[in-house]
Amino acid sequence: MDFLMTDQQRLIIETIRRFVQDEIVPLEAHLDPDAFELPEEEFDRLVGMVKEMGFWNLSVPTEFGGPGLDLVTLTLAAEEMSQHRAGLYAPCYHVFGHGGLAQLYEANEDQRQRYLLPLIRGEKHAFFALTEPSGGSDPARAIRTTAVRDGDHWVLNGTKVFISGADQADFGLVFARSDPAQGRAGITCFIVDSDTPGFRVRRIIHVLRSTEYPCEIEFDECRVPECNVLGEVNKGFTIANDRLTRNRIPYAAGSIGVAVAAQRMAIRWAKQRETFGDLLAHRQAIQWMIVDNEIDLRTSRWLTLEAASKADCGEPFRFETAMAKVVATEAAGRVVDRAIQVHGGLGVTKDLPLERWYRELRIRRIGEGPSEVQRIIMARDLLY
Q1: Residue 331 falls in which region: left (phi positive, over 0), alpha (psi -120 to 50) or beta
Q2: Ranges of H-type helices in 220-273
Q3: What is residue 355's three-state secondary structure?
Q4: Fewest 10 Å CB contacts: which of 54, 61, 65, 277?
Q5: What domain range is 27 assigned to?
Q6: Would the pLDDT of 1 be above 70?
Q7: Rounded to whole angstroms, how far apart are CA atoms 27 and 254?
């Protein structure tokens, strides 16, 4: 495994880094500290710049009009895109494109035309509905939303929770139990339009984030046509699991990105802040915090790049992905916590982005599979 970037990777990363520092960070000085979106005119301007650079939808495969970048490059890019105040959950405020739900790459031609391509072009918005009140970490057994065939339709009944963007989406991917006698072999994925009778966003769930709250969705005799089954009947869990495993790698990289920015801030502050007649940088307690931050950062980055490299090479990467997700999300939380300590009282004010990162990073240890579940995955591979 070679950690040296290629010339192409270096160009991509340096371009994104300049874009974040020259275009995104200055705009945030004029936004609410918890802003999740840019003003429309600024968003449109930056999207135009991104498209002109040829950086629109970097994660989209070539067959759907994207550049088809490898996962290592996307991981490096994800780390750079998150290095600003809103970067953890709105990297660059999505001006680089959403890339579409990766599960939709399994769509047939009709579904591609109606859903995938409009999503990639930014004409439609979508949600991903897997988690339920009965649980999210073990969807194969926790899913209780039912799908019953009725002629050329399926009738959905049940509830989903913690679904981001459902209140503003045009459609979503919904996983329901189509065979009650089976576990993971009895789940089907459906493409559900938001204006379908029986579909209802029941409430907004307030969480640690100050904006862009997830939703609870209710399905009440919601009829979905057979042509909106994604993939094969009873094979939906495979679609969900394979893509989620791969997505945890850039998810980990995004966590590393805000930690990199926090470390940069801590070093800068330590080199200028004086206490008791000397710089913080000369205090051993501060030096050790900075060093521990760097250990956390480099360990997280190497593990995450190893997972991405194995995935690109076609090797098994489930264990490496689980480890990267655990280490990166937990380490990033420690880094930001130490950076706050270095800044003292200033660190917990909304004048700096540290307090927002601190809150949002706590979610990352649960989202995309809790740390405990990732440890279970690793234990199974080691022991059985």
Answers
A1: alpha
A2: 236-270
A3: helix
A4: 277
A5: 7-102
A6: no
A7: 20
In angstroms, the CA 148 to CA 144 distance is 12
Active site residues: 368
- Residue 235 maps to a domain: no
DSSP string, 77-89: HHHHHT-STTTTT
The pLDDT-based confidence of 183 (bands split at 50, 70, 90) is confident
2 inside domain = no
Give dist(CA 198, CA 227) in Å, integer: 18
Domain count, the chain: 3
Per-residue pLDDT tens over the stretch 14-65: 999 999 999 999 999 999 999 999 999 999 999 999 999 999 999 999 988 8
SS3 content of the chain, % helix, strand, coil (to 5): 55, 15, 30
57: amino acid identity, one letter: N
Same domain, 270 and 168: no
Phi, psi of 199 (to 5 degrees): -100, 130
